[in-house]
Design goal:
The structure is a homodimer of 96-residue chains.
Chain A lengths: L2 H13 L2 H7 L4 H15 L4 E3 L4 E3 L1 H28 L10
Antiparallel strand pairs in A: 1-2
The first copy, chain A, binds a DNA duplex (25 and 25 nucleotides) through helix 3.
Chain lengths: 96, 96
Amino acid sequence: MELKQLQYFVACAELGSFSKAADELYTTQPNVSKIIKSLEEELGFELFERQKRGIQLTEKGQLIYEQAYKAIENINQLSILAGEIELQLKEKVWKK
Amino acid sequence: MELKQLQYFVACAELGSFSKAADELYTTQPNVSKIIKSLEEELGFELFERQKRGIQLTEKGQLIYEQAYKAIENINQLSILAGEIELQLKEKVWKK
DNA sequence: TCAAATTACGGTCGACGTAAGGATC
DNA sequence: GATCCTTACGTCGACCGTAATTTGA
C-alpha cells in the first residue's frame, strides 16, 4: 500500500472520473487507471464499477474511501506540523 | 512524503538504531540511512542526532514521531478494514 | 466522431544491494 | 578489530508518457 494509491483513489472517487483526476493530479489517464487497478488487486476487490460513461464507487469502495480520506488528512496534518516545527518553535502552535 | 519514509522513521525511532531497523524491515543499513536522510531533507530539519554509537531522536524528531505513528496506525486500520470487507460482509465487524 | 477507460510498449530514472570509507568503542 | 552510519557505484525494475484499442454517447 502506497500513499499515492490512496491519493489517486480519493481524487477519482471525488471527481467521479479517471480523466478528471488525471488532470487534477498532473498526470495521464493511463497512469491513473493503472494505479487504481494496482490498488484493487492489492485489496482483492474492485473499488469502482466501470460504466459506459465514467465510473462509480462500489459499496466496498465507499467504505474504503472514508478511511482513505482520513488517512490522507492525517498525513496532511503531519506536513503542517512539520512546517510549524521548521519555524523554530517561535510560536508554540502545536501546544494546543 | 511517502509512506515508506514514515515506516522506516518509526522503526528507527523505536529501535534506536538504523541497523536494527534495517533487519526488521528486511532491507540494508545504507538503504535505511538514505531514506531517513531523504525525509529529513524534505522536512528541512534533522530527525536524529547521529552519535558515536547509534542515534537518538531530536526534539523535533520526537514531535514528528508521534504524528507519524498515528498516521501509520491509520493506514494499518485501513488494511484491516480492507481485510474485513474482503470477507464479503459476512460479519458486520465495522458497524461498531 | 468525440469522450473515456484499458492495453501495449519503450525509455528513463530511481531504488536497492554490494562494496568501500570513516568513526568510535 | 568490531560495530554502526555514510558515501560511492552499478544494475535492474518500475513508473511514466505516447500511441493504439475498445466501447459507448
